[in-house]
Every structure is written in C-alpha cells, then in structure tokens.
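Worked example

This section walks through a single chain of length 219. The input is the sequence exactly as stored; nothing has been trimmed or padded.
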Amino acid sequence: MVTAAGLSKVVPNGDGELVILHEIELEVMAGEAVAIVGASGSGKSTLLGLLAGLDTPSAGSVHLDGVDLFALGEDGRAALRARLLGFVFQSFQLLPALNAQENVMLPLELAGSGDAAQRASAMLERVGLGERLGHYPKYLSGGEQQRVALARAFVMQPKLLLADEPTGNLDAATGAAIIDLMFSLNAAAGTTLVLVTHDDAIARRCQRQIHLVGGRVVR
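Given that input, the structure is written out below as tokens.
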C-alpha cells in the first residue's frame, strides 16, 4: 500500500542545510498497522506529510497503492488523497463554522455523494455522537472533537489512514478511549494504518514499529 525509497528532506538552515529525513526506505502492506516512533524532532511528522504528498521531498519517491505520488502534480496528489486517504491530526482540524454532521459530510460532498447527510449521521452514531450532530466544535470536548475527526476520516472508507499523534491534545483516559475506537474502526474496515506516536503503549498495539532517530530509520 505504501512504499518509500530513498526519501529525504533537506531544508536551508542559515549558511548550510538541515537534514530532516535521510534516505528513508519503508514498505507498508495492505491491511497492516504500523507505528512511526521517535523523539520529538526525529522527523516523524515530516515523514507522514511526505507519505501523504502534503510536502515534497528533496530526493526519493513514494508510491501509494502503486501510484508514483510525486510524478503527479498538486491537483493529481489532491485527487489521490481524496480517493485513498483518511487523516486524523493531533489538532482535530475541524471547521469551526460547520457542525459535527457538516464536518463529516464535507469530504462526501466534495466527492459528489448524494447521501452525505445520511452517511455522516450513521458514522457519527458509530463513534457515539448520534446525539451531537448539530453541535459546533466549540461546544464539543476535545475527545468529542477527535471522535468527529475519526468519523470524518472513516466515512469515505479510505484504503489508508494516516494518524499524527491523535491523542496528543487529550488527557490519558480520553486518549485511551480514542485509541480503542480508532483501532476498532480500523479493524472493522480493514484499513491500512500508519500512526505517528511517541507513546510506546500505543505503538505496541500496531503490528510493526519503525523507529526514527535524527531523520534515519534505526530499526
């Protein structure tokens, strides 16, 4: 589902260059759950952004479901993301002017779905928010906002879910509930999962862990 070869990211830094990622090689099989782990500044989020095509590499390639991501233009990458990917971010990334149902409907409407409202309602029911459809993000707790984000990510039935520190802004108990929900939804859908986390307990729930140190895979 995911292949990265020689993937590097280098940015200017004063008079020199800062190497964020150095020749990353990885493969993620369809249906696999993989954690990317490492200390802050090790390049985890940069790697996830490159795998999604949200950033461009200095060198190397990424193939998603057999498609060469960086052989596509920006519009082509966006279309591929819409077809293949779901995202869950640490900061929820909900649109404040839309209520819970409308936030989940948005990707469906962009894809031209004729039953967006019904599908969004059903997905919010699955994540335990069937009574909160009309609530705006500012009236939802952090845990509820992340449940809306999970519903939005899974409503399109993506082949690949990318999650970047999905419990980073939540307390321990709420974070544990969100992780349980995410793995439950993932197992039910058979989605491939790539999860960035600094939490060893969360990483151990994945089938495999990729450890980054200083922008390099060490194991």
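What to look for: The helical segments are 44-52, 74-84, 100-110, 116-126, 142-154, 172-189, 200-203.
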